[in-house]
UniProtKB/TrEMBL annotation:
One of its GO terms (molecular function) is hydrolase activity. It comes from Paragemmobacter amnigenus. InterPro entries: FrsA_esterase, Hydrolase_4. The chain crosses the membrane at residues 261-281, 317-341, 353-374, 389-408, 420-436, 442-461, 473-494. The keyword Acetylation does not apply. The lineage of its organism: Bacteria, Pseudomonadati, Pseudomonadota, Alphaproteobacteria, Rhodobacterales. The keyword Transmembrane applies. This is Alpha/beta hydrolase. Keywords: Hydrolase, Membrane, Transmembrane, Transmembrane helix. Pfam families: Hydrolase_4. Residues 51-161 form the Serine aminopeptidase S33 domain. PANTHER family: DIENELACTONE HYDROLASE DOMAIN-CONTAINING PROTEIN-RELATED, POLYKETIDE TRANSFERASE AF380. It comes from the Bacteria.
């Protein structure tokens, strides 16, 4: 009975979340925006509107158009013509990033050129009034600043979670900087840039004159970090007000609690996994808990050995940034863990023939159901052909790792302390890998929240399946494939 109640409540919450997330799209024209020789792009505008200023929005590293929709929807409702796009190597863009990522004249220049190509196409659209503003997050904050400095028609720039060495006291015109409250270092950087113009300026104080293009302002979004700032109503309202001041408009900012509804949607879909797990065949009994010594050996040894073993080798074999290293890290970590569990006689009876077939159920749930929601409201989850080999390579690593994780946590039967220890050890091993080769692997730090979210969502689902079937390998195989898919569509394509 309890499973039916959970199923009904979760279904209602899914429907409510979808309704709330679709509401901001109502009343707008949202359509593909083809750009000759340019990236995949989307156009947002009010129907039957008069020509308006163009706002070109650029996402950050490992992002995509979907991630920037909160700002796109807000500004489109405020009457602006908004264009979002998938940058080189990101989302559904088939062209990889290239050049030297450490040089301004390398990858940065190529991505600025792409951004300017999008802006030129948008300014040529019949709904454009010939005026332009840029908005960029994280990595793209530097790109939009450099693009605005090269484009006289750029009248304002909104830099979210900004880090850029290109800003001067007067260039680009009308610069608004939006760090999150929990981005302490980026908040300090924002104030440093503001003080280039006025050493006495404070946050939430406008320096200069928007009508003359000399304005500067820092607005700190409360209670958010590097990703949460994109969903902040304060940040979206500040961006709208800034552009209105620049272009002499007075359309209000319509902000919604998009971030909260996305979290509720993902939580409700995950909750559906509990009643659905009852459809799996019920297992008979469960093995005794892993002895303490065997558990800690299988938890700590791979966390220490994996980064140390891989550190001396050149692990670049895939056309994508750091995913090749991550695939090897997963594979070696999983192999060491499985070997130690085998030595402790914890693999016996865990792989009957039906495991392979049953593992398709969690893979379908993760990739099709949760993946569809992520692709619609969070970030690109549909791979293009160029990513097929990357997903396959990651699967060869992620499946052994997640299989080992499921067995080490005893299919959800292990204590919360052991579960946190096992997964915390893996995250610590990635941090150690970055510390050993920061210049090459620093982008792994950006992907850590994705892995943490994966542990939270799919670790919960894995526990339900493991306790139902008494076969942790089912969830380990299924969600290993899901993790490979999720990471394979997230890492940027890169060609040296």
């Amino acid at each position: 009975m309890a499973r039916w109640v959970v199923a009904v409540v979760a279904a209602v919450l899914v429907a409510l979340s979808l309704w709330q997330l679709e509401r901001p799209r109502a009343g707008l024209v949202i359509e593909p925006f083809p750009i000759a020789g340019g990236p995949p792009a989307t156009l947002f505008h009010l129907p039957d509107a008069t020509p308006a200023p163009v706002v070109v929005i650029a996402h950050g590293f490992a992002g995509s158009r979907q991630l920037m929709e909160p700002f796109a929807l807000t500004l489109a409702h405020a009457g602006y013509m908004v264009v979002t796009f998938d940058a080189l190597g990101h989302g559904r863009n088939p062209l990889p990033m290239s050049g030297d990522v450490t040089l301004v004249d390398g990858t940065t220049r190529l991505m600025v050129d792409e951004l300017r190509t999008v802006a030129r196409a948008a300014l040529a659209h019949p709904r454009s009034d010939g005026r332009l503003a840029y908005l960029g997050h994280s990595m793209a904050s530097d790109l939009v600043i450099r693009a605005a400095q090269q484009e006289p028609r750029a009248k304002a720039t909104v830099a979210i979670s900004m880090f850029s060495q290109a800003v001067t006291p007067t260039d680009p015109a009308n610069l608004l900087i939006l760090p999150g409250e929990w981005e302490t270092r980026l908040g300090v950087e924002a104030m440093r840039v503001l003080h280039l113009t006025d050493p006495a300026a404070t946050a939430d104080q406008t320096v200069g004159d928007p009508a003359r293009g000399t304005a500067r302002r820092v607005t700190i979004a409360p209670g958010v970090e590097h990703v949460g700032v994109l969903y902040s109503a304060t940040a979206r309202r500040a961006a709208t007000d800034w552009l209105n001041a620049t272009f002499g408009r007075d359309m209000p900012a319509e902000t919604d609690a998009r971030g909260g509804w996305i979290l509720l949607l993902l939580a409700a879909i995950t909750a559906l996994g509990w009643p659905l797990s009852a459809l799996m065949p019920k297992g008979q009994g469960a093995p005794a808990p892993i002895p303490s010594r065997a558990f800690w050996t299988a938890t700590l040894a791979p966390a220490i050995l994996t980064p140390l073993i891989l550190a001396p080798f050149d692990t670049r074999f895939l056309p994508v940034l750091v995913a090749d290293y991550l695939a090897l890290h997963f594979a070696l970590y999983g192999a060491i863990t499985l070997y130690l569990l085998h030595r402790a006689r914890r693999l016996t009876g865990q792989f009957p023939a039906r495991v392979l077939l049953l593992s398709l159920a969690p893979a379908i749930f993760g990739i099709l159901i949760l993946g569809t929601a992520l692709d619609r409201y969070v970030a690109s989850f549909v791979p293009n052909a160029e990513r097929a080999t990357i997903i396959l390579a990651l699967a060869l690593g992620a499946v052994p790792f997640f299989l080992a994780d499921a067995l080490l946590t005893e299919g959800g039967r292990a204590s919360a302390f052991r579960t946190l220890a096992a997964r915390g050890a893996f995250l610590a091993s990635l941090v150690l890998a970055v510390a050993l080769d920061f210049d090459r692997l620093m982008f792994l730090l950006i992907i850590l929240p994705v892995i943490l979210l994966f542990f939270l969502l799919f670790g919960t689902l894995s526990g339900w399946i493991g306790r139902r079937t008494a076969l942790p390998a089912i969830a380990g195989l299924g969600f290993g494939l899901t993790l490979a898919w999720a990471l394979g569509v997230t890492f940027p394509l890169f060609q040296a």
